[in-house]
Write a structure and sequence with these properties.
44% helix, globular, 8 helices, Rossmann fold, alpha/beta
Length: 204
């Protein structure tokens, strides 16, 4: 019965400053470090032993994974890092304050840029664009491992993980608009041998 755990990285310094981050390689904040450690403690209480880990090419996701595995005493498992799991690229919005951007363009437009499926910010990626690189990687690597019966942890980002959750939970474009994954909160999926979901829960 393979298990998949998805974790959005802990709070980054730009999360704290309410900035669009995207592919900018921003480190965790002090709160983000604690969120990652707490995520590790919650997973430890579930007694899950991982066979392999996946993360993005960005520091905030990698550090979150490292802290979780340290809490679990599982630092020696194989780890694969790939930009296919990176956050969506926010284009011209990267580095801008979200509240100021909402004042400039309107809250409704910014929500569409942030949450919609197929509307990209200027010179950036939509969730559809992000899914176009994240899901092929998920199918070829992570899903393959799950089919082999391995337990997998993925530490990544709000939008790369939203695309995976959208696929797993069969969410519509309208439903995914309201999907927001909290920083440092593990989501645990258990599957049968045909990769049908047996259970799903958030470790809060």
């Amino acid at each position: 019965m393979p298990t998949l755990v998805l974790v959005r990285h802990g709070e980054s310094k730009w999360n704290l400053e309410n900035r669009f981050t995207g592919w900018v390689d921003v480190p965790l904040s002090a709160k983000g470090v604690e969120e990652a450690k707490n995520a590790g403690d919650r997973i430890k209480a579930e007694h899950i032993h991982f066979d392999k880990a996946y993360t993005s090419a960005l520091e905030r996701a990698q550090k979150t994974l490292d802290l979780i595995l340290q809490r679990l005493g599982q630092e020696n498992i194989p780890i694969e890092k790939d930009q296919a799991l990176n956050e969506r690229h926010y284009g011209d919005l990267q580095g801008l304050n979200k509240a100021e951007t909402a004042q400039k363009f309107g809250e409704a437009q910014v929500k569409i840029w942030r949450r919609s499926y197929d509307v990209a910010p200027p010179n950036g990626e939509s969730l559809k664009d992000t899914a176009a690189r994240t899901l092929p990687y998920f199918h070829s690597k992570i899903e393959k491992d799950l089919k082999a019966g391995l337990n997998i942890i993925v530490a990544a980002h709000g939008n790369s993980l939203r695309s995976i959750v959208m696929h797993l939970d069969k969410l519509s474009k309208e439903q995914v608009l309201e999907l927001n994954l909290a920083t440092g909160v593990p989501m645990v999926y258990q599957f049968d041998d045909k990769l049908r979901i047996l259970s799903k829960k958030q470790l809060t």
